[in-house]
Amino acid sequence: MKILSKLATIIAGSAIFMGAAAVQAQAMDEVSYNTHVAKILNENCVVCHREGGVGPMQLTNYEQVRPWAPLIQLKVANREMPPYAYDHGIGIQNLKGDWRLSQDEIDTVVAWVNQGSAMGDSDIAPPEVDLPDPTAWTFAAEFGEPSLILPSIAMDIPANGNDLWTKHYVESGLTQDRCIRAVQVKPRGDARAVVHHANTDILVPNEDGEYEQYGYLTEYAMGKWGEVMPEGVCRTLPQNARVHWDIHMFPGGVGATAEGGMIKDNVVEVALWFHDEDFIAKASPYKQDLRPYLMREGYENNALIVPPNGYTMTQGFHSFDHPVRIDSYQPHGHLRMNAASFEIFYPSTGQTEQISQVSKWSATWHHSHIYAADEAPLLPAGAVLVIKQWYDNTADNPNNPDPDQWVYEGSRTGDEMSHAWIAVTHLDEEGYEQLLADRKEKEERSLAGND
After folding, report:
1. SS3 category, 24
2. Which of 334, 344, 296 has the alpha carbon at shortest distance from 410?
3. Domain range spanning residue 237?
4. 205 burial via Cβ count (<10 Å: 0-12, 13-18, 19+)
5. Per the domain annotation, does 121 fall within a domain?
6. Based on the domain organization, do 219 and 78 belong to the same domain?
7. What are the pLDDT digits (tens) for 53-91?
8. Of 284, 318, 348, which marks where a domain is finished?
9. pLDDT digits (tens, 9 = 90+) for 396-415
10. Do 217 and 292 belong to one domain?
11. Based on the structure, what is the number of domains in the chain?
């Protein structure tokens, strides 16, 4: 309790809470747990902070929450919790699966702690929250149980030691092409903190019966919840495909949920929700793919170097010879990476548009930032993706295991990477113009409705 008391003193005097938003929050009418705060925590925090959840403490009732109130205030005010690193006020803000709290919710929590963290009227019962089973698939509530689950082979992961990899394939068993509606990768049981990444790509037989790479199925990194495809597009899993697993594990684990012990028979599963069998023929959808867009030339030759106690920035440029829509963006790095941004440069106008920025990136929580369908960037042929990432190899970076080391491009947890996973729907000119017209019509209807 001495630590919490000291933390409360620090927070009370900190300039963090003396900004305009905090002053306004302090001036609120009496804020209580039962009437105001429980609803916010139940809807945004308890999914992880409960028995069996990934959070380090339980926050399901007032008795559990009250001792942690100062820390909750600090984490919420700094937008560190819920763990969704995506900057407010920059670029596209309408995202699917966005975990961020609204400013009103943040102000309410800050005011509650500043006023003494009262429980409130005991006759007022906090709203209950219908929590999913922590072992359930993310999209089961929306789409039902998965159409297909493909597990990896089992592997024992020791309590400590060097990075481990397993690369193998499994048969999909599909007898016809299917369009994917949603996809999620999930380590079983206690393996969530030791599975650094689990990528899946697709192999299909050629005319000679030999298997060749078709493309990526999906990407998983620590903390990622999954992907949902936009309406009217098809990310294809072809018939007779093999799914190739590339799983990277870090013994002992990374982050607050690290087990620190041996995990036997670890299995990683990919769950797929398919559209109806006739979706391809019925809708004639445009194709979507997901792949890593690299930042630097010579990626395979250790091009990324972060000096000891120093910094590095990388950037990459990519364009298409046809119109596209950008459906999602997910920066990727390891322990020294701390920020990323995504921009579009339009050669016809000479203008650059910022799409997304992540200023407090963390390797323990990867997110595929899925843009709302009406706001996903529509790019004419020739527009340029500008992708930037920053690396901090100093003692100021709390995730840095050793600031005195030279850091090179590589696959180990202690190395670094520099790329972004981006989902792209490939259009033709007709489809591009139609999507532009649809958005313009919707905007005009919205404006007319406000008159």
Report:
1. helix
2. 334
3. 138-284
4. middle
5. no
6. no
7. 778 888 999 999 999 999 999 999 999 999 999 999 999
8. 284
9. 999 999 999 999 988 898 99
10. no
11. 3
